[in-house]
């Protein structure tokens, strides 16, 4: 599934006044591409992911999946697209504490009134390194294990596009590598992957990196390697800090 956005703007009414999280962002991700989104904290990465996936309505601009403008879908059709065609890994995992790991993974199928196949659930848990943990509840799992349950849950419907918000943020190096290799494999098979990350090594698994700063796309990098990504990020963070200091001085 291709993902496209044009001139996305998103304004939040914050306590200290309005915040423009996105100020005109374009996104073009062809089917089967793996794109990483990076940028300093607060640059709009999560907001972009939510708008592109139809979880949030932008203030203006358009988000399209396979050429269909999400704003033109009714609530029911949009919910169906989200249930059947999109997988989303939330930054805060969003697991249900009363359900086991396996039940959490199967939830998107049950919400779609489909019967889960326990073998497929077990296989997915094994692929994220959680073989034999299916009957544990989130409270009995480490943060990294919970994050891997969240990744397995996003994949259970075999979605055409996976949006992942820092899917390796809580993982040790070995588990992160497993999850990233899995995402890379899915992209090579034709699933589209859009991943927010702070980690240059994670970004190096992608086909291209989009850099955001202050709600705008400020750079792009094709065929990234970790060192080049780290250099670009360092430059971006430095200029964001310089801009913040300049505002403070004024
Ligand atoms: N619900 C909200 N209400 C008010 N302001 C918000 C809301 N969500 C995000 N923002 C603001 O919008 C801006 C962009 O937030 P966003 O979470 O998209 O950034 P981010 O790049 O994902 O940050 P991080 O790397 O810290 O997760 C920030 O200034 C944030 O404080």
TrEMBL record:
Keywords: ATP-binding, Nucleotide-binding, Transport. SMART domains: AAA. GO terms for molecular function: ATP binding; ATP hydrolysis activity; transmembrane transporter activity. One of its GO terms (cellular component) is plasma membrane. Pfam families: ABC_tran. Residues 3-239 form the ABC transporter domain. PANTHER family: ABC TRANSPORTER RELATED (PTHR24220:SF685), IMPORT ATP-BINDING PROTEIN (PTHR24220). This is Putative ABC transport system ATP-binding protein.
């Amino acid at each position: 599934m291709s993902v496209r956005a044009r001139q996305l703007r998103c304004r939040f009414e914050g306590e200290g006044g309005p915040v423009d999280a996105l100020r005109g962002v374009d996104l073009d991700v062809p089917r089967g591409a793996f794109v990483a989104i990076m940028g300093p904290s607060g640059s709009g990465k999560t907001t972009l992911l939510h708008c592109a996936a139809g979880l949030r309505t932008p203030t203006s601009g358009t988000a399209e999946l396979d050429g269909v403008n999400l704003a033109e879908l009714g609530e029911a059709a949009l919910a169906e697209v989200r249930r059947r065609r999109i997988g989303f890994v939330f930054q805060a995992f969003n697991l249900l504490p009363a359900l086991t790991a396996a039940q959490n993974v199967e939830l998107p199928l049950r919400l779609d009134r489909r019967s889960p196949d326990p073998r497929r659930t077990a296989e997915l848990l094994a692929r994220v390194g959680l073989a034999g943990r299916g009957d544990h509840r989130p409270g009995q799992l480490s943060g990294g294990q919970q994050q891997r349950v969240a990744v397995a849950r996003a994949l259970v419907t075999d979605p055409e596009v996976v949006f992942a918000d820092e899917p390796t943020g809580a993982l040790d190096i070995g588990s992160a590598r497993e999850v990233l290799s899995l995402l890379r494999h899915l992209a090579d098979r034709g699933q589209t992957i859009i991943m927010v990350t702070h980690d240059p090594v994670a970004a190096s698994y992608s086909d291209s990196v989009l850099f955001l700063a202050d709600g705008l796309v400020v750079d792009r990098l094709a065929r990234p390697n970790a060192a080049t990504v780290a250099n670009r990020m360092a430059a971006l963070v430095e200029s964001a800090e310089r801009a913040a200091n300049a505002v403070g001085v004024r």
